[in-house]
Amino acid sequence: MEKNQLISQVESIQYQEDCPIIINKINVEKQDDGKIILRCSMENLEKRFVKAVILNIKCFSIDEKELAVLEDVSYLDLEIEQYNVFGRNFFIEVPNIRARIFVFSIQKILFLNNEWWINVNDTNMKMLDYSKRQSLLELGELKEQYLRELETNNFHGHLLYICNNIMICGCNKVVLKEELRCPSCSANFAKLNNMKNEEYLKAKENEYIDNQKKINLEERKIEEKKKIIEHERIKKRNAEEKQHQILLNQKRKKNKLIKTLVSICFIIVIATLIIKLYIIPENIYNNAQEFLNNEQYRDAYEEFIRIGNFKDSEELAKVSEDLATKENIYAEAIIFFKDNKYADAAKHFERLGVFRNSEDMKIEAKYQEAKQYIELKDFEHAFHIFNELEDYKDSDIMKKESLYQYASYLYRNGKIKEAYVIYLDLKEYLDSDKFTKEIINQMFADQKEIKNFIEASRNWTYIIDFRNLSS
């Protein structure tokens, strides 16, 4: 199904007086047949689960002439919890293709507890006026104090905005006016409302400045105490370092001999580790590589396993094991091929992919299998395999031979009309022309009847039915 043409998209929030549901986005789309459809993305702001929504839609032309009214558009069998979006995949067909402007009015809302919200005053939804939202930049120098008061790490670009029964938090989350905290950033709405007042922010800023002065004074006192303690610490440390230097000079001569002996032992240990961890594994690795190059895959696998994770041994062990497995499958396939079990051979060669000449052998096995099917008079399998092989060897001729043998089978069993169609399609293959003439002569004695039969047969469509062939 082709994608509908998007005519317009309105992403501004629409709200309705005292209504707990808002519209986030409206898509106006045109289908291939020219019909206009609407898709509305709505959000439930109420704590109660929404079970159904019924709304009216007034349709206007671009010059604002009313064209139609859609009444009782119903969203049923819902279970929408608070702050969940719904309706995006619900298509509303507009009765007039000239409609481009739409006014929505939610009439009723049924909650999961079977309580109703009803549009008593018959109000319509309105676009939220974003121009009335106050940016933090408008606070000027008080912006920093506002951010300090937020007590949240979420980004706020605007002050709290209250419109009818909804509020828009500074983080852009839309909630009902009765909510105490923002579900997105956890901000306290009562505090956010106070923070809209510049006098409140100014008073808080003065408190902050006074607190900073007290903190700075305490920090200076602490810093002075730290300097005194640091001076005593350095003095003590110098005395300890002097004593330590005396003891160090006494031990230096003794340690020199010990270091010499340790160095010798260390060299011996390092040499042993080099032999054990590198030289020996390197020799085994080279032997395994040679086995791999000589196609001795099982021996290569065992050698790579011996040296664990040396270089890329684990990866090469998997490669060797895989190749050894493929070598076994290849050997089995060759045995099947030599034993004239071509179907089994083809399956084995197909499992091997590009291993050695498996692709060529698979095709040859299929070719020989198809020839076996002809000998067994199983023309269905023979025809399909030769058809799959396309121009391999004489597959195209053998495909015709399968059809020819099938036509002969039909002819011998008295189905001369069906046989005639196949012989006719084979044209000059072998003696097909001879059989077409022979069938016509068997069916008709009069030349006029023969001519009419030939003309009619040109319009026949015959599908070869192999299912009864074995019977």
Count of discrete structural domains:
4
- According to DSSP, the number of beta strands is 14
Q: What value does the average pLDDT take?
A: 86
The whole-angstrom Rg is 45 Å
Low-pLDDT parts are 461-471
How much of the residues is beta strand, in percent? Answer: 15-25%
The biggest beta sheet reads: 5 strands, antiparallel
**What's the SSE pattern?**
EEEEEEEEEEEHEEEHHHHHHHHHHH
Summarize the model shown.
By secondary structure, the chain is of the alpha+beta class. The chain is built from twelve helices and 14 strands.
Q: What does this 3D model show about the protein?
A:
A hairpin with a 5-residue loop joins β13 (166-168) and β14 (174-176). The protein starts with a strand and ends in a 14-residue tail after the last helix. The protein has helices spanning 143-150, 189-194, 198-293, 297-306, 313-338, 342-352, 358-375, 379-389, 395-412, 416-426, 432-443, 447-457; strands at residues 5-10, 14-15, 21-30, 36-44, 50-60, 66-75, 85-86, 92-94, 101-111, 116-118, 126-127, 161-163, 166-168, 174-176. It contains 12 helices and 14 strands. It folds into 4 domains: 5-127, Immunoglobulin-like, CATH 2.60.40; 130-196, no CATH class; 224-356, no CATH class; 377-457. α6 (342-352) runs antiparallel to α7, α9 packs antiparallel against α10 (416-426) and α10 packs antiparallel against α11 (432-443).
